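Model: Ready when you are.
Researcher: Fold this.
Model:
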Amino acid sequence: MKKQLPWFEIILSAAFISIQLYAAFANGYDIANNWFIRDDAFYYFKVAQNIGLGHGITFDGIHPTNGFHPLWLLICIPIFALSRFDLIIPLRVVLIAMSLFSLGTALLLYRMLKDILSPAMGMLAAIVWTFSGYIQSVFYDSGMESGSALFFLALLLYALYRFEKERKNRKPTLRQIGWLGIFATLAMLGRLDLVFLCVIVGIWVIFRDSPMRYFLLSDILVIYASTLFAFVSRLGLGAYYDNVDSAILMAVAGMLFKIPVYYFFGLYRNPASWNPKSLFRNAVLTTALSSAALTAIMLSADALHLIPAFSRAIPAVDAILCLGGLLAVRFAAFGFRASFEHGQDSPPLEFFKLHWQDWFREGSAYYGILGGVLALYMLWNKIAFGTASPVSGQIKRWWASYAVSAFGGAPRDFLTFIMLSPATDTTTQFNTWAPFTSWLSRLSNLIAAHFSQPPFADLWRQNYLLLLALSILLFCGLAFLNKTRTIPAIIYTGLIPLFIGSWIQILSYSTTGYVSPKEWYWLTEQLFLIIAGAAALSALFDLLLKRWTFAQAAIPALVGIFGIYMAWTYWGVVHSQLTYEYLPPGSSYMEAASYLESLTQPGDIIGMTGGGNVAYFIHDRTIVNMDGLINSYTYFQKLKNGTASDYLYQTGMRYIFANPTIIQNAPYRGQYTNRLKVINDTWGGKYLMRLLPKPGN
C-alpha cells in the first residue's frame, strides 16, 4: 500500500516557515527592537557571546553568573559565536531556531491528538499553537528559554503517549523507562522549575498498573495546597510570609505521614471495589491519625524553637481542608469507577510485596537519570559559582522579603496567591492560565457593565470566579457524558500529570513569595489549555454531531478555513512589526547604547538595573547588571548586607544609567544615597549618573 504524504504537516510547515523566513531576513533594527523586545533574552545572548569569546560564563566579563536555565544557554553558545562577525546574524539564527522549536511542538501535538481524538482536533491544536499571536509573542518571539523547553516538554508528552499505547501489548522495558527519564531531563534543563512535572511524570509511569497513579498525584497536590491554605486562612498573606519555613515543614511532613497511612487503609485500591460508607469512614480515620501525628511534629518543632510561633488551629484547618480534598477526589473517582480497567484489589501489604521490586527498578532507571543530572548540575554550580541554584531565583525570592520593592512584591490577595488573577500590572504576571483566564476576565467585565452600576470591582470578581467554576464544571460534565472516549484521551495525553505538575509549580512560586514571575514561565499550563480545549471540543462534537454524517466533512473544512484565517492574521502582525527598509552601514541598532557611547569613554563600566540589550549592542564599554539577576552570587551577598555600591566601585564601575527612584528604594535601601552625581538630563526616564567613591565626594 502506497504511503500518503502528510499533507497537513507539509502545508502547515511551509506556511509558518515562509512567514518566519520573511521575519528572519528583515531590517536588523526592527529585529533588535520590535521582535526581541525582552531584555531578559539578551542576558542569554550576552553570556553566550562572552563564552564564545573566551571570557567565561559571565554577563559583564567581571562577575561569573549562573542566572540562567542551562539548555537554552548551551544552544545559544554556537549561535552567538557568530556575533564576532555581525551582531544581527545571531539574532536571525535565533529567530529561525525558535521557529523550528515552535513548529516541532505543533507537529508533536498534531501527531498525538490526531490519533487520540481525531485528525481535525489534531489539526486545530497545531494551527492554534503555530499561529496564535499570544503563544508566539510570549513563548517564542521573546527569545527566552521557553521555546526550547516547550519542545522537549511536548516530546516528553508524546513519548508518554507512545509508552501508554504500547504498554497495552507488552511490558515496558527499563530502556523505555530510561528514555522517558532522558526526555524529562531535557525538559527540566530547559526550565528548571519543570522538575516538579518531571517528578510527577515518574510517579505516573511507575505506578501505571495501579489506581495509585491517580490518587498519589492528587494527594500530593491536596496535601500541599491544604497546608498552604490553612496557613493563609489563619494568618493572612502578610503574616504567612513570616511563617514560610513552618508551612514548608508541615507540607513535607504531611506528605511523609499521610500518604503511607492512606495507602495501608486502602484508599489507593480500585474504586470499583469501594463501599461509599466504608470509604468515608476510612477517610475520616486516616485524616485524624495522620493529622494527630503531624500536629505532634509541629508542636515539637515549635517547642524546640526550630520554627516561628505556631498557631495550634492551623493543623485543624489543614485536616478539614485535606479531608475535603481527599473525599472529593475519591467520590469523583467512584463516579468514574467503570473507567478503571486495572486495580489494586489485593490487600495493601500484599500488593506492596508483589510490586515493590518493579517499582524500585523502574524508579531507579527514571529518577536515576533525572536526579543524577540535577545533582551534577547543582554540584557544578556550587563549585563554579558558590551556590547550587541559579542566583536569579534566589534574588527574586529575597525581593519578596520587602513589603514594597522597586521590582514588585509578594502576592497580597488570594487570587494572586494562587496565580489566577488576570488583573495584574505589566511588571508581574500572576495570570498563569492566560489567555483563557484573560478571556473570562473580559467577559466578567462585560457582564458587570451590562447588569450593574459602577464601581464593578466586587461584581467583576464574583462573575470571574463563577465563570471559572462553570468552565471547570463544563469540562468535567463533558468528560462524564462522553467518558468512554474522553477518559482514555485524558490518560493518553498525560493531562492528569500535566495538571498536577502545573499546580505544584504555581504553588511553589506562591509558597515563598516569588517576585515578578513572568508570563513565559507557564509552559505546562499552556500545553494543558491546548490539549484540554481540543479534548473538550472533541467531546462536544461527539455528543452533538455524531449522528450528523455531514459533520464528518464539515468539521475538517471549518478547521481548514480557521487555519487560513489564523495564518493570515499572524502574517499581518509579523508584517507590521518588521520591514525591509534600507539601513545605512554603521547605523545604530540600539539608541540607548549610542547615547551612552556619546557620554562615556571606551573601557568605562556602566551599571544598569537590567541592561541586557544595551550590553549586547554597546561598543567598547561594559554593562554591569545591578538588580543581580545575571550577576554573581558574591554580588547578591553584597546587596543583602548593604555594601553593593562599594563592591561595584571597587570592581571599576563609575557610571550608573537608571531611574533614580529605583536606586533609592528596596532592595538597594539607600546604598547609593549621596553617591550619585547626575551628568545628563533624563533619557527615557533614566539618568546617567557618576558613582562617587564615598557619600558626598
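Researcher: Now this one.
Model:
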Amino acid sequence: MGVMSPENVKTMWEMFFVQYGYNVKISLLGEKYPDERSLIVDFNEIQEFSSELLESLTENPEETLKYGEEIILKKFPEEQRISVLHLRIKNIPDDRLREIRKIRSKNIGELITIEGLVRQVTEVRPRLVTGAFQCTSCGHVNYKDQETEILELPAFCEGCGKKRGETRFKLLEDFSIFLDSQRIEIQENPEDIRGGEQPQRIQAYLEDDLAGAVVPGDRVRITGILKTRPRGTRQNPSVVFDIYIYAVNVEAMKEEYKSIVLTDEDIYKIKELASDKNVIERLRNKIASTLFGLEIEKEAILLQLFGGIPLKRRDGTRIRGDIHILLVGDPGTGKSQLLKYVSNVAPKSIFTSGKGSTAAGLTAAATKEEFGEGRWTLEAGALVLADNGIAAIDEIDKMDDKDRVAMHEAMEQQTVTISKAGMNATLMTRCSILAAANPKFGRFDLSKPLAEQINLLPTLLSRFDAIFKMPDVPGNVDAKIAEHILEIHMETEEPVKDEIDDDLFKKYIAYAKKHINPKLTDEAKNELKSYYLKMRSLYTQTKTIPITARQLEALIRLTQASARARLSNYAGIDDARRAIRIIQHFIEDVATNAEGVIDIDRVASTIPTGERTKYELVLDIIRELQEVKGFAGEDEIIREAEQRGFTSLDIQKILKDLQRDNFIYMPSNGRFRLIE
C-alpha cells in the first residue's frame, strides 16, 4: 500500500470526524479552550473506519496527526485564535503493546505503545515552540519555529534583510508561544522481568496538558512517536543515538497484575488447588522448601503474600490491608533466602537492600542529575516502585537516615511526602514489607529486649504486624537440619509429584488478590475479640501491656489473608485461630521478658513497662541530688541505687537510655542534670 498524499489524509480525517460524531466534541472543545486543548480519539474507531488511515497513523504518525490537527483548527472561527491544539489517541489494544527491551532502530518514527512504571520525573518547565525575535536594527518582529532543543535564531531579518551576523535578535517572550514540557523515565513492570534480568528503561517527553500528569511509582501506558537524538556535544556529535518517546497520550493503569494472563486452564487449576482442605499447608511448604522448619514464619509470609483488605472510611482516612513482617536473625538462618523466594513468586515485587542502590533509597528523593539536564528530578525508591505489591528489604537496619524518617509514613499511611527544591509531591507506597535485619553485635543475646539489639527505632518496630527472631542456637533440631540439607544435595532433578510449580503459585496469588475480598464472619469476630480482651486482662496481674490495638488490626489483616489464601469470601473461626497462633508466637517470642511476663513495650517502646519503675527511680535519685548540689554525680547515683538493689551495669545502661531519650544531660564529665 503506497503512502497517502497529505490531501488524502486530511480528507480521511474529515470523513472520520463526521462518521464517528467528533464534530460535536470539537465544538465543545472550542467552548472549553484554553482549559482543554486536546481531542482524544479512540484507536479502535480508527481501526474500524479505515486500514489506510490506520497504516498512515502507525508508519507516519507525526505528519498524520499534524494533518488531523489542521482539520480540527479549520472548524473553529478565525476570531477564536486557537494557536495550540492536540489530537491524541487512546485505547490502544494489548496486542499492539511493545516491550521496552524489544524497541529497535526499525521502529524509529513509528507510533508505539509501551507500559511500565514511572521511575523519575523532572520539574515541569516551559519550552519555546515559536519564538518572536525582534531585529535590533529595524525593530521588525520575526517568527521562528523551534525544531530542536537548541535555541534557533532567524537566519535573516524579514524587515531589513540583514543577516544574523549583521544584526542582533532579541527574544520577545510575550509574543512567543511556550508549551509546558517534562521528561519522565519509564521502567519495565517488575512482573514482566524474567529472573536475573536488568529492568530496561526509556525516556519520554510529555508536553502541554500531559506535563505534570504523572508521579514516580505510577503505572502508565504511553503512546507516542519513537524519536532519536545524537549522543555527544553539538560540536562533536556521536554516531550512536539515544531513543526517546515523544508522548501522544498517557493513560494511567488502574488494574494490577494485568500482564499476568490467566487462561481457562489456569483458573481450573487454581480452583482445584483451592478445593484442597490442606491448601494453606501445601502453599506454606512451597515457600523456600530448602529451609528446614520455620513453619510459623513461613505461614505468616504466605498470608503476607495474599494480604488483608484495605479499608477506606467515610471521612477519607484509610486503614492499610498490607501486612508488614520483620525477620531478625543470626547469620546463616535463611533470612535472605526467604526474601529472595518471596520476591520471585510475588506477582509484583521489588528486592532491595536497606542501603539502597540509588539516591532514592527505599522511599523517594529529589535529586539533580544528567537525566534532567541538571534540573531537579523526583525519583522513586523501592517502596514506591513496589506500590500494590511486596517489597523485600534485606538489611533494613542499615538504611539511610533520610529513609529512616520517611519509613514511618511509608509503613502506616502508605505514602511518601517529598518537599525539596520547590518540589512538593505525595507518592503512594501501598505495599507489604518483608524485611530482614541482623542483631547489632552479630549474634542474639536472648536475655535482652529486641529493641536494644537492632538498629531500628521502636516507633518503626511497632509498625510491623509480626516480628520473628531467628537465632542460631545449637540443640535438638541440629540432626534434623543436617539430614534435611544432605537430602537436598542428594535430590535428583525429577520434580516432586505433589509440588506446586512457581508459575501456578504466582497466578494463584494474582487471582486471589484480584477476585477475593473476604468479610469476617461473626464467629471470627468473636474469636478475635475474646483473645484481645483475654490478653488485655493480663495487665491486672503483671502491670505490663501485653497487646495493643495495633496487634488487633494485625489479627484482622491476617484473618482476611487466611481466607483469601483459601479463595474464600468469608473469613471463619479457623482463619481467626490461624492469625491468633501467629500473633501469639510473635508476642511470646519477642515481647516476653526473662520472668515470662509479656510486655509489648519491649518492642514498641524504648523503655519496657516492666522496667519503667527503675527508670523513674533513677530520675528521682538525680532530682534529690540535684536539689542539694545543683547536679548529680555518677558515682553518687550508683551508690544510692545500689542500696536499693540495682547493679552498677544496670545504672550505666539506664543513664545512657535517659540521655538518649532527652530526660537528662551531662553538663560536664560524670555529672548529670534533669532536662526540665
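Researcher: Key takeaway?
Model: The chain has 23 helices and 26 strands.
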